[in-house]
Amino acid sequence: MFTKMKAKKSKKTGLKEEIEIPANVSVQIKEGEITIRGEKGEITKKYPSYHIDIELKDGKIILKTKNSRRKVKALLGTTKAYIRNMIKGVTQGIEYKLKVLYSHFPISVKLQGNVLIIDNFLGRKAPIKVNVPQDVKVEIRGQEIKLSGIDKEKVGQTAANIEQATRIKKLDPRVFQDGIYIVEKDGKPILA
Q1: How are strands ordered across the β-sheet holding 137-141?
Q2: Which of 2, 140, 155, 173 is the most exposed place for a label (fewest CB within 10 A)?
């Protein structure tokens, strides 16, 4: 009635991705770390070395995996996107734009050292303080805030922190639309 079934051996082949290295960029790979240098600066990040092998060959960064499982494939794509963002950051830079909007109380924004201070948000007496990393440059022109740097993660996270600091809670968002909002992410406008 019961017969022994032989397990099927499946040959899972590894995956391979390639990234072109621009002429003015240098790449160095150590155990679990990749360093990319360019005109604007240098970025070093760790990558999941237990699943992905990275090597340099013929002016290309080659990413390899040993198997093609779904999670490993996703990890390979994420690592490729991180490396592309690092290359773009050290060659062109990353820039986010935010806009200060208010209808009830005029909001003022100023930078003191590495702290962005938001005064008079919804009439609050105490200012809201947002820490800005050393690598991120902040320019304030009237009602516009421009964040720039070479690390996309740091610039994007700083923009998100500023936006979240002025999030309206417990009030009707149709009436109270005051706050600081991201309007452009690295050259791409955000549509409301």
Answers
A1: 137-141, 144-149, 94-101, 179-185, 188-189
A2: 2
C-alpha 38, offset from chain centre:
18
What are the CA-CA distances from residue 79 to residues 51, 84, 96, 141, 178 (Å)?
11, 9, 22, 36, 37
What is the reported pTM?
0.83
Q: Tell me the per-residue pLDDT of 132-162, one tens digit each, with 9 for 90 and over.
A: 999 999 999 999 999 999 999 999 999 999 9
